[in-house]
């Protein structure tokens, strides 16, 4: 079976790519930009800023022009309370959870 037969929109489901980040201000933009180049029809990139003490969140917010939103998050695993959620208006959604 050829790859082209398998690669069609009916064989894909939307996915969320989770990116944990702790004090990543130097490398986080390169990481996210690499993920934005994936060859997949529909996905979002969710960056979880886990209490960084540097400017990780500010760098992401500024670079991707993220805006704070009141987005409900369904917590399926135990975690600390979220402070804020930010997202963009791009074709590929970039979400930052602090």
TrEMBL record:
InterPro entries: Glyco_trans_2-like (IPR001173), Nucleotide-diphossugar_trans (IPR029044)
Pfam family, one: Glycos_transf_2
Residue stretches making up the Glycosyltransferase 2-like domain: 16-70
UniProt GO MF annotations: glycosyltransferase activity
SUPFAM superfamilies: Nucleotide-diphospho-sugar transferases
Matching PANTHER family: POLY-BETA-1,6-N-ACETYL-D-GLUCOSAMINE SYNTHASE
Identification of the protein by name: Glycosyl transferase family 2
Organism this protein belongs to: Tepidimicrobium xylanilyticum
